[in-house]
Amino acid sequence: MTATVRLGLMAIFVATGLAGCGGRDAFWSSPLDSAPPAFGLPGAVALVDTGATRVVLLTPGPDQSLTSTSIPVGPNILNAVASPDGKKLFVVSGGHRGGIGDARPNEPPSLTVIDPSQTNPAQKYLLKTLTDPLAGLAIDPGGHWVVLYAGSGTSQPFVSNPNELVILDVTQPPDKATAITHTLMSFGGRPERFTFTRPLQLPTGLHPLLVVESDQGLSLLQLEHPEIAEITVPLTNAADTRLLTPAGIAVDVGDATDGARIGVRLANDSDVVTLQFVLQPGADLATQNGFVPTVNLTDVGGIASDLAFVHTDGGLRLAALVPGLSKATLIDPVTSLTEDVALPAPYQSLSLVTDPGATVDVALLWNGARTQGQEGVAFWELGHTTGQPYRSIATVGITDTIAKVLDVPAVPMGDTLKVLETSNAASFYVLNLTTRTAAPLLTSTTSIDLSMSPLGDQVWTFIPNGLQVAATRLKDKQPRSLLIERPIGQVFEIQRADGGLSAIVIHDEGGIGATVYDAMTLDDQTRRLYAGLLTADPSTGGAP
């Protein structure tokens, strides 16, 4: 955090400005973050202003206008995370504990959920059972559950229990929601990753689970009944006494015929683990889960880098990529029989790109090593596996190493597209999944960042702390540049309430500024430049 304090003025360099009106002592003396966390939400950009314990929503309007709304959150902001769907912002605050002579009232830790699409955009949940805050946040993709846990860094209390979880149902209003504390059984490990499953076909019915990967095993917790003890699955190999470390999971929800399954790849062993679930006879469902997992281990010959449950012409399989052997292994989850598929490159990542309604899957393989004659991307047809798996791979002429695959939310022209970011960031590709073609886009420098339009019609490219921003239309692959005169922090495209689109370029200087463009025309003459977006009076919200 810098020593810069608020000046109480919002300046505008093109056309008009945002003006502050008065101030509050504590607010005006609070320092400004040099680069506050920023998030693109539906209809607004959210700036987390830790010095003023608030979130500022920047809402674009017609003619590149910008409205500022201040949302107070609890004191001592510890963490802010957007939901997986990008529609909400979750802010954890540590609260305030007053010492002797402190006139400021005590306030417990809290979680504030911000949704700009709502008339009341903020819901604040007080975590009264906590004295010391938990800064870690895991959020259900469906927007139902939130798990707080002990994070890392200076935000944590003097002593914390890494296996303590606080589970909150955020579909309930704050006055009715109950934060439930659950401590995981541990044999010395601590949580590393959290996965929220969809409702799984379990022996007791359809139930979502929270899967917690620690450095020594798995824990399975019923989200609907977090008061029930979790199922602990220690991972060991009968060949030795090592504790095996999970490195990622895949989940198949199952159906009425075949129940749910969970696949686990390991960081320190060539085995892949498959969990299936059987009924626990005589279990009291009020206090017990009513099901237990069975554990099967399958040796795939090397460390698996990715895995997924896939539908093939031979039925459901667990596919594991083994880049050390340039192969994939298909595991039958019923018989544990395996079938190897030789790959033309040591691919490390797998993404399903199956057409809706198809009965067999198509997988996109990427992040292959850049070696002469070996492509960085391939399509894997899972409908050609039985008997002739070598015919199932079709490579795409990309020689760059792929670092990231960006989903395109929607494409007006009807094609299914992906945007591929390369590891050297000197180029990116627009991959057409229908025609199996890849259009390269070159950049004049490395270290670029990419972001997608909410409508999926263009991809934004910019240089952090630089002055270059370009929008590339996915329909015709035509790049268009913006005229930017302040260093760039982040770039967001926001759909406005009137149906238009605005591009908001955040500048991490001068109390935080922004350049606002019409995202459809990108007309330099109508752009507007704002400064001092975090120096407005919080009592007025900084409205222009």
Q: Could you walk me through the main structural features you see in this protein, from its secondary elements to its overall organization?
A:
This protein has 544 residues and is mainly β. Among the domains are: 1-43 and 55-61 and 482-544, no CATH class; 73-183, no CATH class; 187-299, no CATH class. It contains one helix and 42 strands. The chain has a four-stranded antiparallel β-sheet, with no helix packed on it. A four-stranded antiparallel β-sheet has the order 5-6-7-8, with no helix packed on it. The protein has a four-stranded antiparallel β-sheet with strand order 9-10-11-12, with no helix packed on it. Strand 19 and strand 20 form a beta hairpin. The longest helix is centred in the N-terminal third of the chain and has 5 residues, at 25-29.
What's this model, at a glance?
With 544 residues, this protein is mostly beta strands. Helices cover 1% and strands 42% of the residues.
